[in-house]
Amino acid sequence: MNAPIGSLADAMVLPQPYLLFLGDTTEPSFAKTAFGLADWAADRCVGEMGVAGCTVTTGLPRLSPAEAYAAGARSLVIGVANQGGVIGDNWVAALTGAMEAGLDIVSGLHVRLASVPALAEAARRTGRRLIDVRTPPPDIPVGTGRKRSGKRLLTVGTDCALGKKYTALALHRAFLDRGLDADFRATGQTGIMIAGGGIPMDAVVSDFEAGAAEILSPDAAPGHWDVIEGQGSLFNPAYAAVSLGLLHGSQPDVFVVCHDPSRKVILGLEDFVLPTIEEVIDLTIRLGSRTNPAIRCGGVSLNTSSMGAGEAEALLGAESRRLGLPVADPIRGGDAFAALVDSCLA
């Protein structure tokens, strides 16, 4: 049997509002936590800050920790999701300064904040908290494969950091707008910060990935939808394990493939060519049918943020005709996105 996860809204209370920390990031995809919070929790973000070398911006005001505190901020959120989840040596002074200005530090990185001696010392000295979001719950069971009641949708991708979270959030909001009973189930640090709870799947020991996905989306009423944020990619040489465990454990009735048409190679692993959308659909069905033989593809979500409106509209239409599936950019919305929602619910 699956243990209920309880109320996601009550699972975590973080000090808010936030000052978003961008570190020395130059690749926007590695600042996905900051962008996710700025886009989906803008009312809880007062500004951003970086260190020397940072070229990325969310568009929020650039503030010092003292200015952010005066504007109401109560924590600095590390908005970077870099490879390996590490804290840069050149970040430490800025993070220490934030604590001295009165801000707690919130991190979704793999490296624990308190494992950095200078941060641990500053926290003791200032009385500020070091909060690690990427902490899975204790006693996660192994997966059982047992079919659960309720309905589930999972976002999957051709790669990392290209829209799985945004697509899941947009679909969840669309389901609610249609009067459906639905929950957004967060599986990564940014989603957890937005939703207030969830399970950081990439921090779960591999043997328990499927079990974690099962308790994340427990038995539910027949008409209830769990919209589950996907992680990684089945085709990513580094992160396929978390993707497969999430697929088997969530047992999706429907999945949506997320893709960035401007990307040609795996992010951070440029020797590997990106898989095609068709390859992702085929492999997801073949592997996902192990725990849900009725799994189907509801459509495709394209990240067209690098395109103008006319170019994006033309591409969405052409891909929909080519694939025989609804293809939309959830951020652009419109009739194409409404058709994708219709297909998921069909």
Extended strand count: 13
The profile of the biggest β sheet is: 6 strands, parallel
- Low-confidence runs: 1-11
CATH class of the largest domain: Alpha Beta
- Adjacency order of strands in the biggest sheet: 7-8-6-9-12-13
The residue fraction in helices comes out at: 25-40%
User: What's the alpha carbon Rg, rounded to whole Å?
Assistant: 20 Å
Q: Report strand %.
A: 15-25%
Fold and architecture overview:
Pfam families: DUF1611 (PF07755), DUF1611_N (PF17396). Residues 142-334 form the D-glutamate N-acetyltransferase-like C-terminal domain. Residues 52-136 form the D-glutamate N-acetyltransferase-like N-terminal domain. With 346 residues, this protein is an alpha/beta fold. The protein has 2 domains: 8-132, Rossmann fold, CATH 3.40.50; 151-345, Rossmann fold (3-Layer(aba) Sandwich). Helices cover 33% and strands 16% of the residues. It has 11 helices and 13 strands. The protein has helices spanning 32-40, 65-70, 92-100, 117-126, 164-177, 189-195, 209-216, 240-250, 277-288, 309-323, 334-345, and strands spanning 18-21, 45-49, 75-78, 104-107, 130-132, 151-157, 182-185, 225-228, 254-259, 265-266, 269-273, 296-302, 327-328. It has a 6-stranded parallel sheet, with helices on both faces. It has a 5-stranded parallel sheet with strand order 2-1-3-4-5, with helices on both faces. The chain has a two-stranded antiparallel sheet with strand order 10-11. Strand 1 (18-21), helix 1 (32-40) and strand 2 (45-49) form a beta-alpha-beta unit. The longest helix is centred in the last third of the chain and has 15 residues, at 309-323. The chain is globular. Mean pLDDT is 93; it is low at 1-11.
